[in-house]
Amino acid sequence: KTRGKKPVRVYMDGCFDLMHYGHANALRQAKALGDELVVGVVSDEEIVANKGPPVLSMEERLALVSGLKWVDEVIVKAPYAITEEFMNQLFNKHKIDYIIHGDDPCLLPDGTDAYALAKKVGRYKQIKRTEGVSSTDIVGRILASAKAVKVLEDGFILSDTEKSNNAKEIPVQAGQAKVGYVSQFLPTSRRIVQFSNGKILKTARQLGEFLLVGIYSDQTVSELRGSHFPLMNLHERSLSVLSCRYVDEVIIGAPWEVTNDMIKTFNISFVVHGTVAESSSALNGKSDPYAVPKSMGIFRVLESPKTITTSSVAQRIIANHEIY
Ligand code: CTP
């Protein structure tokens, strides 16, 4: 990788809207092609002009990209296409050696390749695009679940016969068998290891800090949110959380309650929860998940820095689509 002592600097740009593990996997591969990864986050205006408005704002997309463990530097409001002027800026000011993009065609509205110039001067490299996930696909999952929830809620307007026929076809209990739009994505152990490694982990360990994140099973999420959730399956959610630079380890399929056993086994000093969370009517009948750590005096509430939630993002998307 390293030519002599000078680090190899690579550049990857993108919209990174509705950040997902496909983006994380792209950045992971890009980082592996060099020593330092500089990421260009495309401006809202440039995204609007080239592919339509993003769901998340520049500020939100930037916060997500900066939180990924493979990202060393970010360039804000990057252009969508690598122009001659911007390319020279990358080479001279940012000392970039290679410009990287996924192996999917990236065309400008006029049909030309956004990376044509970089390719021409031999400073372009490619990584493998991750199948089965994209921002468009996530918007589709959100709309499909909103539609399904709406159909179930509207069930009462059907006639009695329709209702009973319907009831046979679509039982409405929580924890229902998985519906079609949920991804069948399965990570291999190698992929989990790839997502788990990062220099941040070492630093955190030296500081004596360690962040273990418990990720609920798909069944627990269905019980909480309804049968059309989660939008991302357990494996997808695990890779997304693992790609965050502040996370050391994840429990893949954590139980609803933090148990005494867990606290002992994982040697947990504090159990923390944010002030912002999804509200759920299903919570009423459920036990307090933090009863044990509370009784031990090791439960802490952290002020959530933002009010954004899965539902609030879904609301933005639904507001922009005629779905009913
Ligand atoms: N990428 C990838 N795998 C995916 C999605 C994106 O490897 N499933 C890569 C792209 O090839 C690109 C980078 O991630 O190099 C940033 O992609 P972005 O500009 O955000 O947009 P898209 O390629 O359109 O991805 P999406 O459809 O998810 O928005």
Count up the helices.
14
Shape: globular
What fraction strand? 5-15%
Number of strands: 9
Strand order of the largest sheet: 3-2-1-4-5
Bound ions, cofactors and other small molecules, one mention each: cytidine-5'-triphosphate
Q: Measure the end-to-end span.
A: 53 Å
Family: Belongs to the cytidylyltransferase family.
Protein name: ethanolamine-phosphate cytidylyltransferase
EC number: 2.7.7.14
Enzyme class: transferase
Question: What does this 3D model show about the protein?
Answer:
- The chain is an alpha/beta fold.
- The chain has 2 domains: 9-127, HUPs (Rossmann fold); 135-319, 3-Layer(aba) Sandwich (Rossmann fold).
- It has 14 helices and 9 strands.
- Strand 4, helix 5 and strand 5 (124-127) form a beta-alpha-beta unit.
- The N and C termini lie far apart (53 Å).
- The relative contact order is 0.11.
- The model is unreliable at 156-180 (pLDDT under 50).
